[in-house]
Amino acid sequence: MNVLNIIKGRHALPTAAARLAPRSWRIIGVTLLTILLLSSVAGALMGGEGLMWTVWQSEPLKLVVCWENPGAADPLPGEADQTPGWQRRERVRLALKRSWEREARIVFVGWQQCQNEANPASPPHTMGPRRPGTADENIKIQITSSGGGQNTGHGSWGDYQQSGVTLNLHCGSQACMESLAIHEFGHALGFYHEEERGDWPNDISGCPPQTHPTSPPWWPIPTEMRWGAPDRDSVMAYCSGGPTALSPGDVAGVQRAYERHLPGTLLSLPGSLCLSAHANAANGDNAFGWACDEAYDDQEWQYDAVKNALYIQWPDDPSETRRCLDVDTKNYSDVQIWDCLYGTNQQWQFQKTMIRGYGGLCLTRTAAGAGALTMQSCTGGDRQLWRVDQSDITGFVRLRSDAGNLCLTQNGASGSSALAEPCSLGNTVYLPMVATSAGAVRASTPPLDAAPNSPATKAGWIQHFYLAATGKISVPSLFSDSLCLDVQDVWDSDFIAGKGGPVVGQRVQFFKCYNTQLNQKWSFSGHLVSGNRCLALNGDATANGAAAKVTACSSAPQQTWDYHW
């Protein structure tokens, strides 16, 4: 059965808006419109103003999902595919975790049978989404055995709607079920079909613009919100053929609408679970995987590049005590939380790591190895694998090829290409001594050299970088105007106008740092190693509570982590 035809469905629009109540102990939130004014826009998605769920600083967008008729997923008499119903439902849940949840501050929770709510209401109802655990459900799924997918209300306008999302879980293949779910939940997040954009080109073969009756509920779309240029590869485009993964434009768009994960997020790929530990627990309390709910700062791991340590802190601790990720020295496999002693069992290294950036694409070396870097689809091939090494300069790192001896290099002014060049040897920077107010003598950091731009001095810096807040990879400002690793693309004003966005092959450069530029934000994706063993979650690593372990390194997906700093 053609997945493209299955995805097509009617998407009605009732009226309502939504907000998300913040935690009392954290910062109050801001609306999506405010975020749009403050930050850059990128991607290739289109939504409607007033449909998007409100984003708060206090927690991710947390939506309760339920099944109206879970038994309808069971195989039909005579159906060729006899996959059990529970497994089909789980495929839907995991498809959303590997797509929308992996890339942005979104978490879908619940996944039980829908209940009769104590205080049902019709739109505009209670301006949800409401909290999990209150028996209130935001997205109600009805399973069908014919047709494709439907969505009765885009974004927050579909909150609480009976049969708000309809999914055919008998459409013939796992890929079909997953693509339907990703597409329809894109609508649930407030995104429209790409072909409904007012700027959709007329000359894309097989992808004509969509027109609808002018009467409600189809048209007109509330004020269009366009993130980047039109994208025929988007999961929200009919002509994309029913993909089961987000396009680069989708990644940038959803990160723009619902933000990247918080700094410190360490996310396991199979189930998009965050590494968690109770920062106020006793020494020896086990680390585990849990939905990325950002609760109590128990998932915000800071990386100490000097100690090679990962630590969390309890926000109510006036002493700001660090609690380190620790391998149990008694059994050498359990991973736990412990006071930071910085022994070898608390040291971690990023190895076989992809440097993932704009649109989820990866920093890639040329076939020859050395030379200018570009952004390519992430494959995990040798040309995309790096390791994070300690720098000779306190607090900085070197990004070295996992195989061979090539390092990320900045060697030019703003706008110069990012390079992979042979790692320089013996590049220790000899720092002048500076007297402190107490009369003690220490080395200055960064060095206050009398001739900081001399070739001899600069050679010690061009392969050393600082992992700056919110995902930037920056060059020491002593020799430049705070240059950051940057994917060349259009300016913010053009993004907001529906232009630009991430594409394979984009040039990578060093450019003046901007706090809000999405094309200057990076993350690591790969192995986290302690004592030549890799961090992993136990079992299939898809259920809350999966225990954290270290085990022999392999290509198992349970050993792949996204780290945001």
Task: Describe the protein's architecture and organization.
By secondary structure, this protein is of the alpha+beta class. It has 3 domains: 3-253, Collagenase (Catalytic Domain) (3-Layer(aba) Sandwich); 266-348 and 529-551, Trefoil (Trefoil (Acidic Fibroblast Growth Factor, subunit A)), CATH 2.80.10; 358-521, Trefoil (Acidic Fibroblast Growth Factor, subunit A) (Trefoil), CATH 2.80.10. It is 12% helix and 26% strand. It contains 7 helices and 31 strands. It has helices spanning 3-7, 32-38, 85-103, 174-188, 248-258, 455-458, 492-496, and strands at residues 45-48, 61-67, 106-113, 139-144, 149-151, 165-168, 224-227, 266-268, 273-276, 288-291, 302-304, 309-313, 322-327, 335-339, 349-356, 362-366, 369-376, 386-390, 397-401, 406-409, 419-422, 433-435, 441-443, 466-468, 472-474, 483-487, 508-512, 523-530, 533-537, 548-552, 561-563. The strands form 9 sheets. Strands 8, 9, 10, 15, 28, 29, 30 and 31 form an 8-stranded antiparallel sheet that branches. Strands 3-2-4-6-5 form a 5-stranded mixed sheet, with helices on one face. Helix 3 crosses helix 4. The protein is globular and about 65 Å long. It starts with a helix and ends with a strand. The model is unreliable at 1-43, 118-134 and 426-457 (pLDDT under 50).
Subunit arrangement of the protein: single chain
Helix content: 10-25%
CATH class of the largest domain: Alpha Beta
Low-confidence segments, given as residue ranges, are: 1-43, 118-134, 426-457
Work out the strand percent: 25-35%
Tally of discrete structural domains: 3
